Amino acid sequence: MLHLVALMTLLAASPLQSADVFTNSFLVRLNGDHGEQAARQVAQRAGFESWGPVLGSNRDFHFVHRALPHARSKRSVPHTRRLKADPMVQFAVQQSGFKRVKRGYNPLKVENLVQLQPHEDPTDPYFPFQWYLKNTGQNGGKPKLDLNVEAAWAQGVTGKNVTTAIMDDGVDYMHPDLKFNYNARASYDFSSNDPFPYPRYTDDWFNSHGTRCAGEVAAARDNKVCGVGVAYDSKIAGIRMLDQPYMTDLIEANSMGHEPNLIDIYSASWGPTDDGKTVDGPRNATMRAIVRGVNEGRNGLGNIYVWASGDGGEDDDCNCDGYAASMWTVSINSAINDGQNAHYDESCSSTLASTFSNGAKDPNTGVATTDLYGKCTTTHSGTSAAAPEAAGVFALALEANPQLTWRDIQHLTVLTSKRNSLYDAKSRFHWTMNGVGLEFNHLFGFGVLDAGAMVALAKQWKTVPARYHCEAGSVTRTLPIPSKKSVVLKIETNACAGTDTQVSYLEHVQAVVTLNSSRRGDVELFLTSPMGTKSMILSKRPNDDDAHDGFTKWPFMTTHTWGEYPQGVWTIEVRFNSQTPQSGFIKEWTLMLHGTRDAPYSDLPVSDPHSKLALVKKAHEERKKI
């Protein structure tokens, strides 16, 4: 098996430009396991504050200097030297700053609470507006196009004993629809370094984002306030980390590694700038936090990281977002209430499934949820709104079966998500069946989450076999990319057969690519599996004019080959999609296969012979006979 550190180094590599913003935060490593008290003494001697350890370390600490501006264009050499001069300091690095944006936020008019007569269960006044929970055709929607949560609730599953952390701009934990489901022990404010992640109020309500997301997960039921959460008996934690001009690796890492045994699910409705030209992802400490979370969190079962796929629209590609495209996160896209994709939805092969955001007939009819000042709103939207809905569904699954691992959640998502009525409004992407009968779409992944089906299958679930990582082959020669023709490269692999890292049944597949071109946004990449499944792993991005950085060991990921047999010939096609002549070179391609040696699902009973589970089990059984 690849050494974990080496694997992380390979997968975290990115073509990021040199940072030109530096913050007042420093990563300080002591020359021994001296602990927090020693770190505070070192910080005090140098005129800093110690904000505590990084990921629970006894050596690595987050120092802040109040006199330095939060953002400056040059490193502060004197402050760094002052830290390095201390005999207890091994090294000190001033942290670069980078932008992270909330997804789906628009300044919206605040509504007053509408008092409605109880209509049906739940009795919360905003429940009739929560079409994503129960779509009866209200607001021009398509009946039954929803998360099917009532089928989960009818099984007695409501999210009990599960905690979801909202990593955002704070949570109004005094809101009457949230306060009894708030988990204070699991909460923290990493923007202010205190245990009270309350939003910073502004006149434009900009910091309502986290509170709105929290209500989607865990707003209380039948309390005459707002609506109801997907998992209304679950707990939510607030992790305030977005509300500063620039993000740092230390704040992200500590947020994603906070209380991993108290928190089950981390929900993130943010990411790199959705401008169609940014290629960015987690830095080193953040990547370590995520990997540690899936390997060690929840007492070894693994934390679930849910990510909004992005709001860059058809001019962006979420495979250029290293958070949403990570195999350790569950990337969620959105649909509107008549089945179309939303105009802001990005597409990519790493999206696993979808939930909901706006209404179709009235764009202002979004997701009904909690808001600041104890208010309610019906206009929360974007993939920001979609990700917390998925977190709520996963909370239901974890109550149904607390022994589910982070990978079990992904398998359940693939097997129980449904095509339903989802479709691409511009007919660019059609539903396709992969080599084992799983239907997928480049926009929607494997379909819309079905809470009732996921809970039912979770109750009888058997943990999937051990996961292996196989480096299946590389092409390292530099080849030109013609302006009008494609370059097709092939790797024939036995998928590490006969070794300790053999993969026979696929989960995630990565094409780790290094290339540059005269215009990065005109490059398209397609990966085809031995079973014939073709994934567009990079689409044209009209706003990306980069001619310098290209991609350096960037891990383009696809979920479309899930369950397939990986042995055989894999091909990658590189081409320009441009009316004007372009030039470039592909310098390296490494194929990474992730999955199991043994067949998953073999011990699961099949109740519906037409289900995805039945199709995949049949395909696996037939493969064994070959």
UniProtKB/TrEMBL annotation:
<dbReference type="InterPro" id="IPR000209">
    <property type="entry name" value="Peptidase_S8/S53_dom"/>
</dbReference>
<dbReference type="GO" id="GO:0016020">
    <property type="term" value="C:membrane"/>
</dbReference>
<dbReference type="Pfam" id="PF01483">
    <property type="entry name" value="P_proprotein"/>
</dbReference>
<dbReference type="InterPro" id="IPR038466">
    <property type="entry name" value="S8_pro-domain_sf"/>
</dbReference>
<feature type="active site" description="Charge relay system">
    <location>
        <position position="209"/>
    </location>
</feature>
<keyword id="KW-1015">Disulfide bond</keyword>
<dbReference type="InterPro" id="IPR008979">
    <property type="entry name" value="Galactose-bd-like_sf"/>
</dbReference>
<dbReference type="Pfam" id="PF00082">
    <property type="entry name" value="Peptidase_S8"/>
</dbReference>
<dbReference type="InterPro" id="IPR015500">
    <property type="entry name" value="Peptidase_S8_subtilisin-rel"/>
</dbReference>
<keyword id="KW-0165">Cleavage on pair of basic residues</keyword>
<dbReference type="InterPro" id="IPR036852">
    <property type="entry name" value="Peptidase_S8/S53_dom_sf"/>
</dbReference>
<dbReference type="InterPro" id="IPR032815">
    <property type="entry name" value="S8_pro-domain"/>
</dbReference>
<dbReference type="GO" id="GO:0005615">
    <property type="term" value="C:extracellular space"/>
</dbReference>
<protein>
    <recommendedName>
        <fullName>Neuroendocrine convertase 2</fullName>
        <ecNumber>3.4.21.94</ecNumber>
    </recommendedName>
</protein>
<keyword id="KW-0378">Hydrolase</keyword>
<dbReference type="GO" id="GO:0030537">
    <property type="term" value="P:larval behavior"/>
</dbReference>
<feature type="signal peptide">
    <location>
        <begin position="1"/>
        <end position="18"/>
    </location>
</feature>
<feature type="domain" description="P/Homo B">
    <location>
        <begin position="463"/>
        <end position="599"/>
    </location>
</feature>
<keyword id="KW-0325">Glycoprotein</keyword>
<dbReference type="InterPro" id="IPR002884">
    <property type="entry name" value="P_dom"/>
</dbReference>
<dbReference type="GO" id="GO:0016486">
    <property type="term" value="P:peptide hormone processing"/>
</dbReference>
<dbReference type="Pfam" id="PF16470">
    <property type="entry name" value="S8_pro-domain"/>
</dbReference>
<feature type="active site" description="Charge relay system">
    <location>
        <position position="168"/>
    </location>
</feature>
<keyword id="KW-0865">Zymogen</keyword>
<keyword id="KW-0732">Signal</keyword>
<dbReference type="GO" id="GO:0004252">
    <property type="term" value="F:serine-type endopeptidase activity"/>
</dbReference>
<keyword id="KW-0964">Secreted</keyword>
<dbReference type="InterPro" id="IPR023828">
    <property type="entry name" value="Peptidase_S8_Ser-AS"/>
</dbReference>
<dbReference type="InterPro" id="IPR034182">
    <property type="entry name" value="Kexin/furin"/>
</dbReference>
<dbReference type="InterPro" id="IPR023827">
    <property type="entry name" value="Peptidase_S8_Asp-AS"/>
</dbReference>
<keyword id="KW-0720">Serine protease</keyword>
<feature type="active site" description="Charge relay system">
    <location>
        <position position="384"/>
    </location>
</feature>
<comment type="similarity">
    <text>Belongs to the peptidase S8 family. Furin subfamily.</text>
</comment>
<dbReference type="GO" id="GO:0043005">
    <property type="term" value="C:neuron projection"/>
</dbReference>
<keyword id="KW-0645">Protease</keyword>
<dbReference type="InterPro" id="IPR022398">
    <property type="entry name" value="Peptidase_S8_His-AS"/>
</dbReference>
